[in-house]
Fold each of these.
Amino acid sequence: MTGVEVVAAPAAAEVNRIKRNFLASLNHELRTPLTGILGMLDLLTETPLNEEQREFVNSSRSCAELLLESITNAIEFSSLANGTSGHTESEFRPAELLRAAVSAREPKSRAKGLPLSLLLDPQIPEVALSDPHRIRQVLDVLLSNAVKFTAAGEIEVVASAATRADERTWLSVSVRDSGPGIAAADLAEIFGTGVLADNPLVDPSPGLRVGLSLARQITEAMGGSLEAESYPGEGSLFTFSIPISAGKPATAAPAPPVTPEKTAPRILLVEDNAVAQRFMITLLERRGYQVTLAPEGLSALRKVATVRFDLILMDLQMPGIDGIETTRRLRQLDATAATPIIACTANPSSEVRAECTAAGMDDFLSKPVNPEELFTVLARHGGLPVNPPRQL
C-alpha cells in the first residue's frame, strides 16, 4: 500500500499541473480576443456616432462583457472544483481596489438610470495584505448581479474594517440593491450550482447561482464568509467578510515638478497582440504619453539600451522570451533596474501575480484593461501628464 501511495502522489501532482496549465491556456486564449473586442468598442464610443450607432455599440459591448464574465466564472469554478486554484497574499490598496471595481460597473449602472455609490470606512488601512484578485472577483460577482437584476432605485456599496475578538482585522464589503428581492424559500438555495428557476429556459439569467457559488467558495477558502439578506419587493443585501493584515504604506518617490519645457513621460509598451497594441497606444497617447512599442521581449531589451523610459507596461505571454523572463533581464540592467514595470495580462490569477512580483514587477493590470485603473496605476508610479484626454 505504501508503494502505491508513493507512486500515486507524483502522478496526482502531474495531473493537477496539466489541468492548471490547460485552464490557464484556455483562460488566456478566450480572454485575449474578448479584450480586443472590448477595447475597440471603447475606442469606438469616443468617435462621432449617431444615436442608433451608439445603441448598437453599447449592445455589442454588453454582450461581450457577459461572455467574458461567463468564461471567467466557468474557468474559475472549474479550477476551484479541481483543486488547481488557490489564493496568494500580497500587498494591495483596499480603497483603490474598491473604487476600481465600482467604477468598472458605473457605465452599465448609469445606462439603466441607477445611482451607484461607494462608502468607505476611514478605518480601512491604506495598504493591506490579502489576495486582491480574489477580493475583486467576489465584488465583481455581487456588483454584476446587483446591476443586472435592479430595474429602478439604487445600488450602494459599503466597506468597513474592524478588529474582532480573534484580534484579526476583517474587511467587510456589502452590496445593497433595490431589486426584486429573493423569496425566503429560495434564499437558502442561491449559493448552489444549479439554476434558481424550475425551468432554466425561462430564467432570465441562469448563470446567477454559478457566480454566487463561486463567490462563496472563494471567501470561505480565504477564511471568510458571504451572507445574503433579501425580501421580495425590497431588494437584497450581500455581505462578504475576510481577514486581512495591515501593510506598510509605500513611500512613493516625489514626482518631478511639471514645467512647460518638461516632455511627456515615455512609456515602453511590450505587447505582441496587434489589437491590444492599437488600443493601449491610442489610450495612452490621448492622455499625453509618449509611447514606444516593443512587440516581444528581445525587442524591449534592445529599445531600453538606446532610450530611457519612465515606465514599462509588460505583457506576459509573448513569442520568444515571455514577460516574466524579460522583466528579470531588465532588472539586471543599470538603465532599468529601478524603472517601474507594470504587468498586463489576460490571466489575472493569484499565482501569476506572485510570479510577477518575484520577477521584479511593481504593479499589476488585468486585461481587459480598464482606463481608470490604468491611469490610477500610472499616477502611483510617477504621475499623470497634465493633458486631458483627447476626443476624436
Amino acid sequence: MRKLRYPLLLVHGMGFRDSKLIGYWGRIPLELERAGCRIYYGDQDANGSIEANGAVLAQRVKEIVRQTGAEKLNVIAHSKGGLDMRYAISQLGIAEQIASLTTISTPHHGSLTVDRLLRLPKPLVRLGASCADLWLRLLGDRHPDTYGAIGALTTSAAAEFNQSCPDAPGVYYQSYAFVMKHIWSDMLMIVPAAVVRCIEGPNDGLLAPRAVEWTNFRGVFTGSGSRGISHCDEVDLRRKRLSRRQGDGVSDITEVYLDIVNDLGSRGF
C-alpha cells in the first residue's frame, strides 16, 4: 500500500453535512486512516449553490494547508461535491494547492432526468426546494439553495459550467461511475432508480455513467453480488460490505477508496 504524500480532503455531496455523530462516509475514513492517510472534511453546506460551497471549500483548503504545512492536498469528492470542488479550483485561486481531484459519481455533464424534473410547474418545484431549505437550516446549513443546486444539475447548466470551469493545469483529475444491477438493488433508491432507468438507462439510483464521465475516466463499477452499487453505497451509508461474494466486481466499497489512495500514492501524490 502506497502512502499519500499529501493530506486527503473528503468532500460530500447534496443532502448531507459532515457530522461527527452521523458521518457521511461510513467506514471509509477509518480504513483510509489505517492506511496512513491524514483525513480532513469539506464542511460545506448540504444544499448550497456551487458558488457558495466552492467559496467554503476554497477557504477550507487554505486552512488545512496552513494548519498542516502541506504544499498541496488530494481531494476525493462525491456527487455534487465534485462540482463544488471544481469551481473552487478553477475560479477561486487554489489550483496550486490541489494535487489531485478524484470525483465519485459527480454529474459533470448534468442529468437528463433533472431536465425532465424541471419541466414540472415551477411553483411546485420551488415549494419542495423551500421546504428542503428550511429543514437544512435547522440541521446547520448557512445558505441552503436547493432550487439553485438542482438547477445547476441540468445538462445545459453543466455545459456552461464546463466551459467556465475547465480542468486546471497541474491538477490530476480522475472520475468514477457506479451502477445498480436492478432498480430494487437498493430499496432507498428504488423510485429514482426506476425513473432514471426509463430516461437514461443503467444508473446508481440517481446518475447514469454518461453524466459522470470526466477526465481520466476509470470506468463503471458494480458489485460482486446481485445488487450492484447505489449512490448511497458509494459512501458506505449502511456501514457494511456490499457482498460476501468474491470475484468480478466490488465486494466492499472501502476497497475502491483504498485502491484510489494506493494509485495516487504511486503517482507521487
